[in-house]
């Protein structure tokens, strides 16, 4: 069940208390009139407006446009008869939530024209009342012009972020399924034949043990050798099992940043030489988490990734030009930083944080070279 305050517009730059004032103000304008009939008529219009406004949030299809039409008529009436313009701000916010592009522009144009016409007429019929609140009326007109586009673009960006997140989850699931199938094929090819051979030779050794001891011993030796070979192949398969490669992750990051409309700058070489697969796998996961946080939290327009494979360590630097992280406690607890630190601790890596015009994360992982016999 939604709370009562959900009727008020959110993320408009105005406090909920300002919107409450906008709700109470019309009563002030109404009670300034001397006629009891006008007071009753004004109260009915206010209640009808907020009832329609609430219904417009919970309705679907054509009913939404019906309630908006009623709200526009009431807003015009309140402007002409009582000099109250500020219902137009409620409408401006709601119009920004219309997902249909055609519906948005039609309602935006109609609302803007009717508001300007009503304000212009009221200037000539209610001169003293309107001139006393001219700065607020001017701000309201600016709000009617800008707020719908701000709300519309913000909602569109949020929908794209959700679609991107869903697409990434789907891709991850498909990659997991593909990897499972590949592992199943490798296990079948590696162990299936060897275990079948061991089974056949075991049956043969059992039959020969009472007839030909030397032949049975030879089969047992073959079984032993086959088991050792299978064990070696399994170890090699597990060791060489594909993890997350940095060069693959860079391609994935480029796609994510492009979808988020961020510029991507890359420096260095993502193809590593001599770095263990485990180190590269952990570094790739940390890089993915860091860039995901840039997209979700930084509000940046650019993300730069630098990779250096030094003799003693692997260094990855992620920079953005976003809002940064103002509180170090927030850095430690949130924004996925804790997960990155835990992964790095597993391979004795470190994470450094630099706050400048944006945010810079520096990942350093000891580059342990594989030893070959």
Automatic annotation (TrEMBL):
Transmembrane segments: 12-31, 38-58, 64-95, 102-124, 130-149
One Pfam entry name: HisKA_3
Gene Ontology annotations for the cellular component aspect, listed alphabetically: membrane
Xref: CDD domains: HATPase_UhpB-NarQ-NarX-like
Keyword Membrane attributed: yes
Molecular function per GO: phosphorelay sensor kinase activity; protein dimerization activity
Protein name: histidine kinase
């Amino acid at each position: 069940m939604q709370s009562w305050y959900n009727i008020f517009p959110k993320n408009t730059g105005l406090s909920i208390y300002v919107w409450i004032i906008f709700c109470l103000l019309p009563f002030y304008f109404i009670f300034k009139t001397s006629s009891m009939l006008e007071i009753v008529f004004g109260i009915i219009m206010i209640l009808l407006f907020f009832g329609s406004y609430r219904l417009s949030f919970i309705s679907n299809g054509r009913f939404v446009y019906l309630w908006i039409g009623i709200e526009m008529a009431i807003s015009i009436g309140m402007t002409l008869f009582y000099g109250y313009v500020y219902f137009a701000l409620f409408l401006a916010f709601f119009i920004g939530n219309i997902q249909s592009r055609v519906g948005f522009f039609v309602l935006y144009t109609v609302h803007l024209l009717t508001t300007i016409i009503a304000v212009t007429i009221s200037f000539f019929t209610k001169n003293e009342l309107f001139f006393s609140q001219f700065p607020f009326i001017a701000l309201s007109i600016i709000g009617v012009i800008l707020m719908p586009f701000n709300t519309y673009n913000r909602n569109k960006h949020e929908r794209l972020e959700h679609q991107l997140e869903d697409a990434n989850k789907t891709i991850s699931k498909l990659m997991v399924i593909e990897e499972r199938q590949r592992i199943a094929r490798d296990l079948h090819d590696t162990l299936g034949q060897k275990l079948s051979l061991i089974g056949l030779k075991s049956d043969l050794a059992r039959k020969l043990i009472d007839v030909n001891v030397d032949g049975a011993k030879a089969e047992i030796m073959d079984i032993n050798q086959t088991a050792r070979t299978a064990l070696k192949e399994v170890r090699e398969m597990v060791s060489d099992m594909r993890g997350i490669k940095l060069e693959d992750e860079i391609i994935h990051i480029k796609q994510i940043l492009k979808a988020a409309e961020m510029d991507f700058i890359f420096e260095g070489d993502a193809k590593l030489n001599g770095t263990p697969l485990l180190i590269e796998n952990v570094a790739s996961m940390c890089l993915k988490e860091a860039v995901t946080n840039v997209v979700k939290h930084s509000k940046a327009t650019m993300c730069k990734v630098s990779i250096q494979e030094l003799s003693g360590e692997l260094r990855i630097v992620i920079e953005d030009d976003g809002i940064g992280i103002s509180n170090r406690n927030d850095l430690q607890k949130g924004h996925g930083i804790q997960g990155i630190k835990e992964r790095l601790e597993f391979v004795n890596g470190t994470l450094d944080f630099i706050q400048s015009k944006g945010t810079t994360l520096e990942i350093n992982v000891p580059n342990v070279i594989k030893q070959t016999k």
